[in-house]
Amino acid sequence: MRTATVLSALVAAGLTVGAATAEAQTPSASIQATATVLSALSVAAGNNLVFGNVTPGVNKTIAITDGGAGTFTVTKAASSGVTLSFTLPTNLASGTDLLPIGSWSGAWNTSASTAGATAFTPSPAGTNTSVNAATVLTVFVGATVSPPLAQPAGNYAGTVTMSAVYF
Amino acid sequence: MRFQLLFLLSALAAAPSVAAQVSITGIRDLTFGPVIVGIPSSVGPSHPTKSGQFRITAPLSSKVQVRFTLPDALAGPGGAQLPISFGSNDAMAIGSAPGSTPMTFNPKATRNPQFQPSTAYDVFIGGTVTPAGNQQPGSYAATITLTITNF
Fold first, then answer.
1. Is B11 inside any structural domain?
2. Residue B78 above 60 pLDDT?
3. How far is the C-alpha of B41 from the C-alpha of B87, rounded, in Å?
4. Neighbouring C-beta atoms of residue B13, cutoff 10 Å
5. Of A75, B10, B42, B45, which has the highest C-beta tally within 10 A?
6. Dihedral sign of CA atoms A95, A101, A104, A109 in order
7. Residue B147: is its pLDDT beyond 90?
8. Which residues in A105-114 are b (16+ Cβ under 10 Å) and which e?
9. What is the dihedral of CA B12, B17, B18, B23, to 10 degrees?
10. Does A11 touch chain B (CB under 8 A)?
11. For residues A16 and B87, which has the higher predicted lDDT (pLDDT)?
12. For residue A91, what are the CA distances in angstroms to A71, A76, A126, A163?
């Protein structure tokens, strides 16, 4: 009986000691929450893509360096890059008559000149510019129309849409 | 009997402190990246690269309480403040044991993960920043702290 009592007391004492070693601790660690606020992005239409007169059966190309090239202007934050995405027509229309258009070409530059511009192929999938310090980009667009020999005469037009988002 | 008592006492005294074996490490920042003035931007806790991440390790069957200390704004240029908020599902914990199921929880509330069968947990956090229309452009940051109380 005495042995059992002593054992109980010692066990109780031992458990008390054990509990003291497991006293609450409050380890902690920290991370950062970060964000970079950019100014609003805007896109403005510039020059229309103009082919002028075309001859049935003769393809006509407007290069990005030509006067008839289409242009857009992107206003963005400095030290940022943007993705340029296009909705491109496959035909120009004159009433119900269609004039095929394709072979799109493009270039973007931090100035309003094609000299030193970076070429790309406009597409719905989008093209990333570089991350650059400029706050204005000029985008140039060219293409080729392919009138068949039986192309009806008329004025043809279509809409080229460009969108830009930060990446 | 005396030997048995001494052995029992020494075994209890030598038992390692559970508290000493709990650890927590910050693994990854909560990164919103570029956000545009006037447009709120959210990162979910399950985002593979942008969510914040901590790792907690503890002995099997440990009882701990997890508590975030959250900012209400990120600090930016010239003292500018970018509001940040945390939704009720913006935290997530997943154990290291095979087959562990992610558990979402409110980062503004405490959480008591069970270290059974996992002995490590990854705790992820997302959130939403809400730049004002006239928010000052620039880089913003704030600190998120995760604290463990080990019972």
1. no
2. yes
3. 13
4. 11
5. B45
6. negative
7. yes
8. bbbbbbeeeb
9. -160
10. yes
11. B87
12. 19, 31, 21, 20
Q: Which domain holds residue B37?
A: 17-134
Write out the two tokens for B144: 């998120």
A10 contacts B28? CB cut-off 8 A? no
List, in order of start, the domains of chain A with CATH numbers. 42-165 (2.60.40)
Q: Tell me the C-alpha distance between B105 and B88, whole Å.
A: 6
Count up the domains in chain B and report the number: 1
**Single pTM value for the model:** 0.66
Please tell me the predicted confidence (pLDDT) of residue A23: 53
Query: Does A32 contact B136 at a Cβ distance shorter than 8 Å?
Result: no
Contact A29 B24 (CB under 8 A): yes
- Chain A hits for B18, CB-CB cut-off 8 Å, are 22
Q: Please say whether the beta carbons of B129 and A36 come within 8 A.
A: no
Tens digits of residue pLDDT in B120-144: 999 999 999 999 999 999 999 999 9
* Amino acid letter, B73: A
In the block, tokens 């799109």 appear at A104
Q: Higher confidence at residue A121 or residue B60?
A: A121
